[in-house]
Design goal:
387 residues, alpha/beta, Dihydrodipicolinate Reductase, domain 2, 2 domains, 9-stranded mixed β-sheet, 7-stranded parallel β-sheet
Length: 387
């Protein structure tokens, strides 16, 4: 198998590349990026004969398709706004694929992937991705499912890269139609900072308020569980407390509308300016505590009794005590590693289905959890009878 890692020199996708080098037997791993210096640096660091750098500009569709055609699988680490373009290129090149975001642009290319006898799994990082596996693990043990609550704490700087800045602006866009919950048979759009709930995350992260966010799990979990009578699906998230204070202030003052302003004969979006400042300042590129913490709650009926299953995840500390997990890498590795596992599952025939296939239908959570364990990422499962 030949793997093309689109956006492979980025902070998150480069972790997926490192994981493929360490755990996969694929034949070729091409780091594809428009940043030649970053790509060459990663290849030089890895010193593996399977790894090479290939320059690519995904916005040049026809040229990008030509570059991708010799490959079997494309690991797509591009940003949310590029996923429509990147998915089109992967589909037309005849490759299998997996990406991090899964926000919906992928599904219009389902027929092309099916025609090519290929699979694309949208959204397989930590959230969505591992959260989908956690829900499936719990729900598969229940005859019916009533409530699913997915929550996460992403402890990383607010703007450590352009793509992360873009994610912040996207998720808190006040008019975003994708910020929905599923409740009593329908998807309901909600504004930012809706339905606050205190979520107890594993240590060292603690308990924090979390709010509804626009994530793919709401729709994919509904698709997977619609025959089990699910009544409520909510997806929440938070970043470090100081980040959330800033985001809430920006939201309440109307900055997320990104209105155009003029300064010294230049016109720009006000949120674009804020994002640019944060990307170039210590306050935007550092934080006190790094890492990722997931919390998934599923309630339903098992063996005729009402039960609740809570799943959480932990990983090595970011304090430097475990090599390779220092500071920001405790976050970026959590996001990148699941995508590499998905690629390896496709390469080894462990992925189910053709076309654009949601994670819940594509992968076995038991197998995914075993692979995570090899990387020191652990899933804890706790069951409680409610009546």
């Amino acid at each position: 198998m030949k793997i093309f890692c689109l956006g492979g020199a980025g902070k998150i996708c480069s972790e997926a590349v490192r994981d493929l080098v360490a755990f996969s037997d694929v034949e070729t791993i091409s780091v594809g990026d428009c940043n030649e210096d970053a790509g060459a640096a990663l290849v030089g660091e890895l010193k593996d004969p399977r790894v090479e750098f290939v320059q690519i500009d995904i916005t040049n569709r026809e040229q990008a398709i030509e570059v991708l055609q010799p490959y079997d699988i494309v690991m797509d680490g591009t940003t949310i706004t590029l996923n429509g373009i990147s998915t089109e290129c992967i589909a037309r090149a005849g490759c299998h694929g997996v990406n991090l975001n899964g926000f919906g642009e992928e599904y219009r290319y389902d027929a092309v992937f099916r025609q090519n006898d290929a699979i694309l799994v949208p959204g397989f990082g930590m959230t969505p991705g591992i959260t989908d596996m956690m829900v499936k693990y719990a729900a598969d043990k229940m005859e019916t499912v009533d409530i699913v609550r997915v929550s996460h704490g992403a402890f990383r700087p607010i703007a450590f890269s352009p793509s992360i800045t873009e994610t912040t602006v996207y998720e808190y866009d006040p008019n975003l139609p994708g910020r929905v919950v599923f409740e009593d048979g329908e998807f309901k759009q909600v504004p930012p900072f809706s339905r606050e709930r205190m979520i107890e995350l594993p240590e060292p992260y603690g308990t924090h308020p979390q709010w509804i966010i626009p994530h793919a799990e709401t729709r994919t979990v509904h698709e997977y569980l619609k025959e089990k009578g699910v009544r409520l699906i909510e997806v929440r998230g938070t970043w470090p407390p100081q980040n959330m204070l800033l985001v809430r202030a920006l939201y309440e003052w109307g900055f997320f509308s990104n209105d155009k302003v003029s300064l010294h004969d230049m016109e720009f979006g006000i949120m674009d300016a804020v994002g640019q400042y944060l990307q170039n300042s210590p306050v935007g590129t550092t934080t006190e505590l790094y890492g990722y913490a997931l919390h998934v709650q599923v309630t339903g009926i098992r063996n005729g009794r009402k039960v609740e299953t809570v799943l959480t995840h932990t990983h090595p500390a970011s304090d430097g005590s475990v090599p390779g997990w220092e500071k920001l890498r405790a976050y970026t590795r959590c996001v990148g590693i699941p995508m590499a596992i998905a690629v390896d599952f496709i390469a080894t025939g462990k992925a189910q289905g053709k076309g654009v296939v949601i994670p819940e239908f594509a992968f076995d959570p038991h197998e995914v959890f075993e692979e995570l364990k090899k990387r020191r990422i652990l899933i804890d499962v706790r069951d409680k009878t409610l009546e």
